[in-house]
Design brief:
With 165 residues, the protein is an alpha+beta fold. It has a domain at 43-50 and 85-158. Helix content is 47%, strand content 16%. It contains four helices and four strands; from the N terminus they run αβαβαβαβ. It has helices spanning 19-32, 51-82, 98-121, 137-143; strands at 44-48, 86-93, 126-129, 150-158. Strands 1-2-4-3 form a four-stranded antiparallel β-sheet, covered by helices on one side. Helix 1 (19-32) runs antiparallel to helix 3 and helix 2 (51-82) crosses helix 4 (137-143). The longest helix has 32 residues, at 51-82.
Amino acid sequence: MELSFTLRSPAQRDPLHSAEIRDALVRAQEASRDPLGTLPMEPWQFYHLNAEAVSSVAWLYARLLEDEVGADGARSAYEQWRAIPGWIVVTCHRVEDAEVMERAREDCLTAVQRYSLSLWSDNIPTNWVTDVITESPELYRLLGIDPEAEVALGILWYGHAERGA
């Protein structure tokens, strides 16, 4: 499928541009951990996306939507997604046993909640996205994630969107 518009070069912006944001992300990473130390492992992985990856993932999302919402709707979604300053794709390590996998998934989602609450406590808004994009094999390829080893659970957006997008 071809979009009726092309992937733009990413704006030169870095969501980790300030020491304040970097410090908040470090605190959030620490907050995501099991406070009691009872988990045998931390099955989650946080992938912080740079501007180039954000543009690529936003474009992929628009491609996935175009048949459903048309070219204008896809273009709008692409621009809206590109306006989000901070992106973290969250994955969970795959486990063979279904019961253990469900527990690992629950642990991952709890870690995301802790991460998000930590950012909120630093006045950094977040939004959790679980859309068709997390099921796309292309997302795994774009980000270099091994789909045999990890499953994408969602995307945690953080920060204030750029004006005008």
